Amino acid sequence: MASTILKTNFNNSMQFIEGWYWALPSKKLKLGKVKPVTLLGRNLAIYRGFSGEVKAVDAYCPHMGAHLAEGKVEGNDIRCFFHNWKYDESGNCVEIPSLEKPLPVYIKTWETAEKYGMIWVWVGEEKANVLPFVPELEQVECNYMLGTKFIKNCHPNVLLINAIDAHHFNTVHNLPLEIIFDSQSLNNNAITFSNTTRGGNDSWFIRLVRPLYKEQVTYSMCYWYGSTGTVTLGPDFLHFYIIFSLRMIEGGKTEGQTILVTPKRQGILGCLINPILLWLTQRVGNYFAKGDTQVFETIEFNFQNPTKADQSILQFIHHVNQQKSLNWGTWEAVDDINNKNVKPQLKKNLLAYKQHEFNI
Ligand code: FES
Ligand SMILES: [Fe+2]
To answer: Which residue ranges traverse the bilayer (predicted)?
Structure first.
């Protein structure tokens, strides 16, 4: 049996979780324009039709393989530059200039969404699930701002566990807090880790900020599709929200974008305060990112000796390994124990492998 079949999802550069992935900022795609985007090893042409809706299609024209991002948007259709074949918004070929009737060919289309100032693509075989959101803002109207775009020399999964690496808050970020996470599944594709402590009692810092919060210091991270994390942080009267939206690039590295979020506030005061709060949110995000940057340039992730403080990380790894995964580039489903077409012997081997993993 090929060893790749046995590889689990976590920190795997050959496969990724079926889900929503950010493609490009909304403002970078004007009405009637088309852009080339490489997403998880697959080349796409993403265009905005004149209705304003965004369409994502496989990049290469079924005639001779020209990249459709060289083409032209017509209405909500796209026309290939090379020999002018035209495809409608469902991907069907509707016009071939040299023929009276078009051929029955089509380009594959992918579901898109626009939120948080971003264009997202559903990368998957199944019907699209919900877009990532901050749990406590699910029903709240918000203002958004794109923060920092970055590249890191490690896998998105490895970068994301930083947010629930309880011990490193003391060692790297010098926070004199005891952090203990409680985890909860939000849905099949999302898991939340929330801090349950009120911090330590013995430091001046805690004594200073203690009057600002009644219960625990709110700090929670909700992971979506193993690739996007939404952070909620702050005392009772003011929560900061940051979305860390990551995607894997060649070689199992990370390309990420932070999205800063704050609830809409009414009136002139809201207009004045919200930009300041988004700016502050950016500073909070940068503070956390700064301490670890060097580690993620040089780390060779190899989690050989987990301790009790690493419990949440193990839970996250388990969650990621349970998710449906697709192959890098082809976006075809990876053989999985739950897949009906998997042969009994392979199923047995996968099961044995999973059991071994849980025993670690
Ligand atoms: S390659 Fe697109 S029309 Fe010929
Ligand atoms: Fe950190």
So the answer is: none
Q: Which atom of ligand 1 is nearest to the CA of 61?
A: 2
Domains and CATH numbers, the chain: 20-123 (2.102.10.10), 135-323+328-337 (3.90.380.10)
pTM of the model: 0.88
Question: Phi/psi at 256 (nearest 5 deg)?
Answer: -135, 165
* Cross-strand bridge partners of residue 233: 219, 240
The DSSP element (H or E) to which 318 belongs, if any, is: helix 311-322
How many angstroms separate the Cα of 348 from the Cα of each of 29, 235, 297, 332, 351?
Answer: 48, 49, 38, 22, 5
* Structure token pair of residue 257: 């974008």
Q: What's the pLDDT at 359?
A: 43
**At 91, is the secondary structure helix, strand, or coil?**
coil
| Ligand 1 cavity residues, CB under 6 Å | 61, 63-64, 66, 80, 82-83, 85
Contact 161, 169 (CB under 8 A): no
Q: What residue's CA is closest to ligand 1, atom 4?
A: 83
Residue ranges in the chain modelled with pLDDT below 50: 1-5, 358-360
